Amino acid sequence: MALTGRIPREFGNLSFLVSLDLGSNNFHENLPQEMTRLCRLKFLDLSFNSFSGKVPSWFGFVHQLQVLSHRNNSFTGSIPSSFSNISTLETLNLNFNSIEGQIPKVIGILINLRELKLRGNKLIGSIPLSLSNASRLETLEISLNSLQGNIPEGIGNLHNMKMLSIQYNQLTSSIPFTIFNISRIEIIAFIGNSLSGYLPNDLCNGLPKLKGLYLSTNRLRGYMPTSLSNCSQLQVLSLSENDFGGPIQSEIGRLSNLQILQLGTNHFTDLEISFNPLNGMLPASMRNLSTSLRKFYASNCIIQGRIPNEVGNLSS
Question: CA dihedral defined by 50, 56, 60, 64, rounded to 10 degrees?
Fold first, then answer.
Protein backbone atom coordinates (compact mmCIF):
# COMPACT_ATOMS: atom_id res chain seq x y z
CA MET A 1 0.00 0.00 0.00
CA ALA A 2 3.10 2.28 -0.18
CA LEU A 3 2.79 3.08 3.52
CA THR A 4 5.82 4.74 5.07
CA GLY A 5 7.22 5.89 8.40
CA ARG A 6 7.79 4.04 11.67
CA ILE A 7 5.61 1.43 13.34
CA PRO A 8 3.70 3.29 16.10
CA ARG A 9 4.24 2.17 19.68
CA GLU A 10 0.47 1.98 20.09
CA PHE A 11 0.52 -1.31 18.16
CA GLY A 12 1.45 -2.84 21.49
CA ASN A 13 -2.05 -2.05 22.76
CA LEU A 14 -3.69 -4.42 20.25
CA SER A 15 -3.67 -7.19 22.81
CA PHE A 16 -6.06 -9.48 20.87
CA LEU A 17 -4.15 -9.22 17.59
CA VAL A 18 -3.39 -12.64 16.11
CA SER A 19 -2.04 -11.78 12.64
CA LEU A 20 -0.07 -8.74 11.45
CA ASP A 21 1.06 -8.41 7.83
CA LEU A 22 2.86 -5.16 6.95
CA GLY A 23 4.84 -6.56 4.01
CA SER A 24 5.77 -4.64 0.85
CA ASN A 25 5.64 -1.10 2.17
CA ASN A 26 8.21 1.55 3.06
CA PHE A 27 8.38 1.23 6.83
CA HIS A 28 11.80 1.93 8.28
CA GLU A 29 13.95 2.25 11.41
CA ASN A 30 13.53 0.02 14.48
CA LEU A 31 10.53 -1.91 15.69
CA PRO A 32 8.91 -0.66 18.92
CA GLN A 33 9.56 -2.87 21.93
CA GLU A 34 5.93 -2.38 22.96
CA MET A 35 5.09 -5.11 20.44
CA THR A 36 6.17 -7.64 23.05
CA ARG A 37 2.73 -7.12 24.58
CA LEU A 38 1.11 -8.83 21.57
CA CYS A 39 0.88 -12.05 23.53
CA ARG A 40 -1.65 -13.67 21.14
CA LEU A 41 0.28 -12.90 17.95
CA LYS A 42 0.82 -15.98 15.77
CA PHE A 43 1.68 -14.49 12.37
CA LEU A 44 4.07 -11.55 11.83
CA ASP A 45 5.25 -10.56 8.35
CA LEU A 46 7.38 -7.45 7.90
CA SER A 47 8.98 -8.45 4.60
CA PHE A 48 10.03 -6.06 1.82
CA ASN A 49 10.39 -2.92 3.91
CA SER A 50 13.39 -0.89 5.07
CA PHE A 51 13.58 -1.88 8.73
CA SER A 52 17.06 -1.51 10.16
CA GLY A 53 18.91 -2.04 13.39
CA LYS A 54 19.56 -5.31 15.15
CA VAL A 55 17.09 -8.18 14.97
CA PRO A 56 15.05 -7.55 18.15
CA SER A 57 15.82 -10.04 20.90
CA TRP A 58 12.41 -9.37 22.40
CA PHE A 59 10.80 -11.47 19.66
CA GLY A 60 11.71 -14.35 21.94
CA PHE A 61 9.05 -13.18 24.37
CA VAL A 62 6.18 -13.27 21.86
CA HIS A 63 5.59 -16.88 22.82
CA GLN A 64 2.70 -17.77 20.48
CA LEU A 65 4.43 -16.91 17.21
CA GLN A 66 4.18 -19.54 14.50
CA VAL A 67 5.34 -17.52 11.47
CA LEU A 68 8.03 -14.83 11.68
CA SER A 69 9.09 -13.37 8.32
CA HIS A 70 11.39 -10.35 7.98
CA ARG A 71 12.96 -11.09 4.60
CA ASN A 72 14.29 -8.31 2.37
CA ASN A 73 14.99 -5.65 4.96
CA SER A 74 18.18 -4.15 6.41
CA PHE A 75 18.38 -5.90 9.76
CA THR A 76 21.89 -6.25 11.18
CA GLY A 77 23.48 -7.92 14.16
CA SER A 78 23.19 -11.58 15.01
CA ILE A 79 20.25 -13.95 15.33
CA PRO A 80 19.14 -13.65 18.98
CA SER A 81 19.41 -16.83 21.00
CA SER A 82 16.12 -15.80 22.64
CA PHE A 83 14.35 -17.16 19.56
CA SER A 84 14.67 -20.54 21.25
CA ASN A 85 11.89 -19.43 23.63
CA ILE A 86 9.33 -19.47 20.81
CA SER A 87 8.50 -23.15 21.06
CA THR A 88 5.53 -22.76 18.67
CA LEU A 89 7.64 -21.30 15.83
CA GLU A 90 7.15 -23.11 12.50
CA THR A 91 8.61 -20.62 10.00
CA LEU A 92 11.61 -18.32 10.49
CA ASN A 93 12.40 -16.35 7.33
CA LEU A 94 15.20 -13.77 7.52
CA ASN A 95 16.32 -13.99 3.87
CA PHE A 96 18.23 -11.07 2.38
CA ASN A 97 19.19 -8.89 5.30
CA SER A 98 22.66 -8.05 6.67
CA ILE A 99 22.64 -10.45 9.60
CA GLU A 100 26.04 -11.48 10.90
CA GLY A 101 27.50 -13.98 13.32
CA GLN A 102 26.77 -17.67 13.58
CA ILE A 103 23.57 -19.67 13.39
CA PRO A 104 22.69 -20.11 17.09
CA LYS A 105 22.93 -23.67 18.35
CA VAL A 106 19.68 -23.14 20.28
CA ILE A 107 17.76 -23.09 16.97
CA GLY A 108 17.79 -26.89 17.25
CA ILE A 109 15.51 -26.60 20.29
CA LEU A 110 12.65 -25.43 18.06
CA ILE A 111 11.06 -28.84 17.61
CA ASN A 112 8.10 -27.42 15.66
CA LEU A 113 10.28 -25.57 13.14
CA ARG A 114 9.44 -26.48 9.53
CA GLU A 115 11.12 -23.70 7.55
CA LEU A 116 14.45 -22.02 8.33
CA LYS A 117 15.39 -19.48 5.66
CA LEU A 118 18.54 -17.38 6.15
CA ARG A 119 19.59 -16.88 2.53
CA GLY A 120 21.59 -13.83 1.50
CA ASN A 121 23.07 -12.66 4.79
CA LYS A 122 26.58 -12.45 6.26
CA LEU A 123 26.53 -15.55 8.44
CA ILE A 124 29.84 -17.18 9.32
CA GLY A 125 31.04 -20.23 11.20
CA SER A 126 29.84 -23.78 10.83
CA ILE A 127 26.39 -25.30 10.50
CA PRO A 128 25.43 -26.28 14.07
CA LEU A 129 25.02 -30.00 14.75
CA SER A 130 21.99 -29.13 16.86
CA LEU A 131 19.92 -28.52 13.72
CA SER A 132 19.49 -32.28 13.47
CA ASN A 133 17.25 -32.04 16.55
CA ALA A 134 14.69 -29.95 14.65
CA SER A 135 13.08 -33.16 13.46
CA ARG A 136 10.13 -31.53 11.67
CA LEU A 137 12.32 -29.33 9.48
CA GLU A 138 11.19 -29.44 5.84
CA THR A 139 13.11 -26.50 4.34
CA LEU A 140 16.66 -25.44 5.18
CA GLU A 141 17.73 -22.51 3.00
CA ILE A 142 21.03 -20.97 4.09
CA SER A 143 22.63 -20.13 0.74
CA LEU A 144 24.65 -17.00 -0.06
CA ASN A 145 26.47 -16.67 3.25
CA SER A 146 30.05 -17.36 4.38
CA LEU A 147 29.49 -20.62 6.22
CA GLN A 148 32.49 -22.92 6.55
CA GLY A 149 33.33 -26.44 7.62
CA ASN A 150 31.47 -29.65 6.95
CA ILE A 151 27.86 -30.50 6.29
CA PRO A 152 26.89 -32.21 9.58
CA GLU A 153 26.13 -35.92 9.33
CA GLY A 154 23.04 -35.32 11.45
CA ILE A 155 21.33 -33.44 8.60
CA GLY A 156 20.62 -36.86 7.13
CA ASN A 157 18.43 -37.64 10.13
CA LEU A 158 15.94 -34.92 9.18
CA HIS A 159 13.57 -37.35 7.50
CA ASN A 160 10.93 -34.70 6.76
CA MET A 161 13.32 -32.55 4.72
CA LYS A 162 12.05 -31.53 1.28
CA MET A 163 14.49 -28.77 0.32
CA LEU A 164 18.13 -28.55 1.42
CA SER A 165 19.90 -25.54 -0.09
CA ILE A 166 23.38 -24.51 1.09
CA GLN A 167 24.67 -22.89 -2.08
CA TYR A 168 27.46 -20.34 -2.45
CA ASN A 169 29.17 -20.76 0.89
CA GLN A 170 32.62 -22.09 1.78
CA LEU A 171 31.78 -25.66 2.75
CA THR A 172 34.47 -28.31 2.48
CA SER A 173 34.85 -32.06 2.93
CA SER A 174 32.44 -34.59 1.41
CA ILE A 175 28.66 -34.76 1.25
CA PRO A 176 27.34 -37.07 3.98
CA PHE A 177 25.85 -40.14 2.34
CA THR A 178 23.02 -40.03 4.88
CA ILE A 179 21.51 -37.10 2.96
CA PHE A 180 20.84 -39.44 0.05
CA ASN A 181 18.53 -41.51 2.24
CA ILE A 182 16.01 -38.74 2.97
CA SER A 183 13.13 -40.25 1.04
CA ARG A 184 10.98 -37.08 1.04
CA ILE A 185 13.65 -34.74 -0.27
CA GLU A 186 12.92 -32.93 -3.53
CA ILE A 187 15.78 -30.42 -3.82
CA ILE A 188 19.46 -30.93 -2.92
CA ALA A 189 21.46 -27.80 -3.78
CA PHE A 190 25.15 -27.33 -2.93
CA ILE A 191 26.37 -25.22 -5.89
CA GLY A 192 29.37 -22.97 -5.34
CA ASN A 193 31.24 -24.57 -2.44
CA SER A 194 34.46 -26.57 -2.16
CA LEU A 195 32.91 -29.97 -1.51
CA SER A 196 35.07 -32.94 -2.44
CA GLY A 197 34.87 -36.71 -2.47
CA TYR A 198 32.66 -39.08 -4.43
CA LEU A 199 28.96 -39.55 -4.93
CA PRO A 200 27.61 -42.96 -3.87
CA ASN A 201 26.82 -45.23 -6.78
CA ASP A 202 23.43 -45.98 -5.23
CA LEU A 203 22.70 -42.26 -4.82
CA CYS A 204 19.17 -42.38 -6.20
CA ASN A 205 18.01 -45.64 -4.69
CA GLY A 206 16.46 -43.83 -1.73
CA LEU A 207 15.32 -40.61 -3.42
CA PRO A 208 12.03 -41.33 -5.20
CA LYS A 209 10.85 -37.68 -5.06
CA LEU A 210 14.08 -35.90 -6.04
CA LYS A 211 13.42 -33.18 -8.63
CA GLY A 212 16.61 -31.13 -8.52
CA LEU A 213 20.23 -32.14 -7.84
CA TYR A 214 22.43 -29.03 -7.94
CA LEU A 215 26.12 -29.84 -7.36
CA SER A 216 27.95 -27.61 -9.86
CA THR A 217 31.13 -25.68 -9.01
CA ASN A 218 32.63 -27.93 -6.37
CA ARG A 219 35.49 -30.44 -6.32
CA LEU A 220 33.51 -33.65 -6.58
CA ARG A 221 35.08 -36.53 -8.46
CA GLY A 222 34.49 -40.04 -9.68
CA TYR A 223 32.03 -41.49 -12.17
CA MET A 224 28.45 -40.39 -12.61
CA PRO A 225 26.34 -42.74 -10.46
CA THR A 226 24.54 -45.35 -12.53
CA SER A 227 21.62 -45.21 -10.12
CA LEU A 228 20.63 -41.79 -11.49
CA SER A 229 18.04 -43.56 -13.61
CA ASN A 230 16.16 -44.43 -10.41
CA CYS A 231 15.43 -40.73 -9.78
CA SER A 232 12.40 -40.89 -12.03
CA GLN A 233 11.11 -37.44 -10.99
CA LEU A 234 14.43 -35.65 -11.65
CA GLN A 235 14.00 -32.42 -13.63
CA VAL A 236 17.38 -30.70 -13.12
CA LEU A 237 20.78 -32.42 -12.96
CA SER A 238 23.61 -29.92 -12.49
CA LEU A 239 27.11 -31.42 -12.25
CA SER A 240 29.19 -28.83 -14.14
CA GLU A 241 32.60 -27.57 -12.99
CA ASN A 242 33.68 -30.53 -10.90
CA ASP A 243 36.20 -33.31 -11.48
CA PHE A 244 33.85 -36.04 -12.64
CA GLY A 245 35.33 -38.50 -15.08
CA GLY A 246 34.45 -41.47 -17.22
CA PRO A 247 31.66 -41.88 -19.74
CA ILE A 248 28.34 -40.07 -19.83
CA GLN A 249 26.06 -42.78 -18.55
CA SER A 250 23.45 -44.15 -20.95
CA GLU A 251 21.08 -44.35 -17.98
CA ILE A 252 20.56 -40.60 -18.48
CA GLY A 253 18.06 -41.52 -21.16
CA ARG A 254 15.74 -43.07 -18.60
CA LEU A 255 15.12 -39.74 -16.87
CA SER A 256 11.92 -39.01 -18.75
CA ASN A 257 11.19 -35.82 -16.76
CA LEU A 258 14.66 -34.29 -17.17
CA GLN A 259 14.54 -30.67 -18.36
CA ILE A 260 18.04 -29.31 -17.65
CA LEU A 261 21.26 -31.34 -17.90
CA GLN A 262 24.54 -29.58 -17.04
CA LEU A 263 27.75 -31.59 -17.39
CA GLY A 264 30.26 -29.04 -18.68
CA THR A 265 33.85 -28.41 -17.52
CA ASN A 266 34.68 -31.61 -15.72
CA HIS A 267 38.41 -32.39 -15.69
CA PHE A 268 39.74 -35.01 -13.33
CA THR A 269 42.99 -33.67 -11.92
CA ASP A 270 44.19 -36.37 -9.49
CA LEU A 271 46.95 -38.12 -11.46
CA GLU A 272 47.09 -41.02 -9.02
CA ILE A 273 43.70 -42.32 -10.15
CA SER A 274 43.10 -43.43 -13.71
CA PHE A 275 39.90 -41.52 -14.44
CA ASN A 276 39.55 -39.34 -17.51
CA PRO A 277 37.43 -36.23 -17.93
CA LEU A 278 33.82 -36.89 -18.85
CA ASN A 279 34.25 -38.41 -22.25
CA GLY A 280 32.90 -40.74 -24.84
CA MET A 281 29.95 -40.53 -27.16
CA LEU A 282 26.66 -38.96 -26.34
CA PRO A 283 24.42 -41.91 -25.53
CA ALA A 284 21.76 -42.69 -28.10
CA SER A 285 19.38 -43.17 -25.18
CA MET A 286 19.03 -39.39 -25.09
CA ARG A 287 16.32 -39.84 -27.70
CA ASN A 288 14.05 -40.74 -24.79
CA LEU A 289 14.34 -37.15 -23.56
CA SER A 290 12.80 -35.71 -26.75
CA THR A 291 9.71 -34.33 -25.03
CA SER A 292 11.31 -33.07 -21.80
CA LEU A 293 14.89 -31.81 -22.25
CA ARG A 294 15.12 -28.03 -22.72
CA LYS A 295 18.79 -27.27 -21.91
CA PHE A 296 21.89 -29.45 -22.31
CA TYR A 297 25.41 -28.18 -21.45
CA ALA A 298 28.51 -30.27 -22.13
CA SER A 299 31.17 -27.63 -22.89
CA ASN A 300 34.78 -28.53 -22.05
CA CYS A 301 34.07 -32.25 -21.96
CA ILE A 302 35.71 -34.72 -24.33
CA ILE A 303 32.86 -35.76 -26.61
CA GLN A 304 33.94 -38.29 -29.22
CA GLY A 305 32.35 -39.59 -32.39
CA ARG A 306 29.28 -38.30 -34.12
CA ILE A 307 26.36 -36.64 -32.44
CA PRO A 308 23.68 -39.35 -32.54
CA ASN A 309 20.79 -38.71 -34.88
CA GLU A 310 18.53 -39.21 -31.90
CA VAL A 311 19.85 -36.02 -30.32
CA GLY A 312 18.56 -34.12 -33.34
CA ASN A 313 15.08 -35.26 -32.44
CA LEU A 314 15.07 -33.39 -29.14
CA SER A 315 12.08 -31.24 -29.96
CA SER A 316 11.45 -29.29 -26.75
Answer: -30
